[in-house]
Amino acid sequence: TDAEVSTRRKTFTEVQTERLEQAERTVLIKCPPKLNEKKLLQYLSSHGNIRSHFFFENRGIHALIEFSEKNSIASLQDAIGIPSAAEHHVVPFKSRLFTFTLKNPVSQAAEETLVHLSPQSHIPVKELIQKLCHADSISHQMYILLNEFQLTEENIKLRFLACSLVRDFARAYFPDSMVKPFGSSVNTFGKLGCDVDMFLDFHDVQKHTTKMKKGPFEMEYQMKRLPSERLATQKILSVIGDCLDNFGPGCVSVQKILNARCPLVKFSHQPTGFQCDLSVSNSIAVKSSELLYIYGCLDPRVRALVFTVRCWARVHGLTNSVPGTWITNFSLTMMVMFFLQKRSPPIIPTLDQLKELADEKDKHVIGGYDCSFVSDLSKIKPTKNTETLDALLSDFFEYFGNFDFRKNSINLRKGKEVNKPESSPLYIWNPFEQDLNISKNVNQPQLEKFVAMARESAWILQKEEKTQRMINKEPWGLAALLIPFGKSNPSKMKNRMKGMGSETIRSLLDSLKLNNANSLQKAVGK
C-alpha cells in the first residue's frame, strides 16, 4: 500500500521517535467480558479524541487506546478510582493500565457486540505447512510465511507501550530518561511472540554541550561517583528491578541478572503478554538494530529470506530459545545478509559502502569503534538484481552447504570471506566491535549439523518434482523443508553425509532421532 511505502522510507530514528511519542498518548484497558465496543469508545471519547484503537485477547479482552492528545489521559485518570482493598492491600501506583467492569452487567449483557481481535501470536508451524501447500511458487510460500510471522502494526504499538510503561517508573528517579526498544522489536526481523529488549537511556548529551558555552562559569551537577560504569549500571538496574517487582502492576517473575556481560532485568509483563529484558543504554546494540532496519527496508526479498531461514532452522533444532552452543537467530540473520551481499549484482550493500554514504550527522564513534553509516534510505541506490526467492533460497543452502568454514570467516563490512582470525568453528565478524565474533558460542557438531541440513535442503529443492508432489497432495517446496528430515527416508540422508567425521555423523543421527520427537513439538509449541 502507499501508506506502507511512505512509512518505509523514514529513517530508523524518525520511526522510533514517532512510535515512542505515540506510546505516551496510549492507555491499556482490561475490558468487561460482555463488551459493547461502541459504548466503550463513546465513553472514552468524552475525555478526548481517539486516534486509533484495537482489541486483543490475553486472559480476557484488552483494548489499546491511542488518544490524539496526551492530556486526555490525565482527564481519564481523574475519573478512575483505586481498587477497593478488601482482602488485599494495594500499592497506590497509578499507571496507564485500567480495568473496566460494567456497573449493571445484567441489563447491558444484551448489548454485547463481537469485537475484532488482533492476533498477538503466529500460527503453529503445522498450520503454516498446510497454507504453504496451496501457494503456486516457493517465492509465494516465503511471502506467506513472512506475513504469518512478522510483527503486526498492533503488536508493535503494544511493544512500544510496554517500554513507555517502564519509562514511567524510571522517571520517578531520572526524569529525563527514556526507555527504548532495540533488537527484533524494531529491526524489521521480529516475529510475533518474540521478547521485547528494551534499554534505559540517559543520553541527552548533545543538548547540554551546546548550552554550556554560554556564561562565565563551568557548571555541573553534583552526582554520586562510582569506580566504574558497570557498577553504576548494576545499581540503577537493581533499584528499577526492585521497583517493577514491588510496585509495577502486572510485572511478574522479575529476575535481576546483574553479573552478565550486559547486566539486565528480566520480567514478564502480564498486561501486554510480553517477556521483557531491560538493560542500560547500549549504543552499539542500537546501531546493529538500525543496520538491520536499513537492510530490511531496502528490498522485500531480504526479510522473506531471513524469516524463512530462521523458521527452517528452528524446525530442525539448529536454533533454540535457550542459550547454548546453537547458532543464534542474530548469527543466522548475518549469514543471510552476507549471502545477499555476495550475489551478482549484490542485493544489499556492504557496511563499508553504507559508511561511504554517511554524512556528518551519521558519524558515530562508540567506545572507540566507528559505527558510522548512512541513515537516509533514499541515498542508497536500489539493487539491479532480479533473482527470484526460489533461486535465492536454493542457492543459500547450496552456498553454506559448501562454504569452507575451516578456513574462512564472514565479514559484512567488506562483503567477502576473510581468513579466520582465530579458530572458532564459525566466525562471523561483529559488524561494529570488530574484535568480536558474534558466533563464538557455536561448537563444531552444531556447525556440522547446520551444514548437513543445508545440503539436505539444497538437495530437496533441486531434486523435487513439484507437480508430482502437488498431484500426490504431498508438501512441496518450502513446506517440504519445514518437516523434520529423517522422517521420510533416513537412508538417503546417510549417503549425503559422506565426507563428514564419523563422530559427527553419529552425534548428528542421535540428534536427529531426538529432534524428530522434539522439533515438531517445539515448532508447534513455539
From TrEMBL:
The record places domain Poly(A) RNA polymerase mitochondrial-like central palm at 138-296
Q: Which residues form the RL domain?
A: 11-79
Which co-factors does it depend on?
Mg(2+); Mn(2+)
> What does the UniProt keyword field contain?
Magnesium, Metal-binding, Transferase
**What's a Gene Ontology MF term here?**
metal ion binding
Task: Report the residue ranges that make up the PAP-associated domain in this protein.
Answer: 391-426
Q: What's an example GO cellular component term for this entry?
A: mitochondrion
Q: Which GO terms describe its biological process?
A: RNA 3'-end processing
Q: Entry's Gene3D superfamilies? A: 1.10.1410.10, Beta Polymerase, domain 2 (3.30.460.10)
Q: Which PANTHER family match?
A: POLY A POLYMERASE CID PAP -RELATED, POLY(A) RNA POLYMERASE, MITOCHONDRIAL
UniProt protein name = PAPD1 protein
Question: Which species is this record about?
Answer: Dromas ardeola
High-level lineage: Eukaryota, Metazoa, Chordata, Craniata, Vertebrata
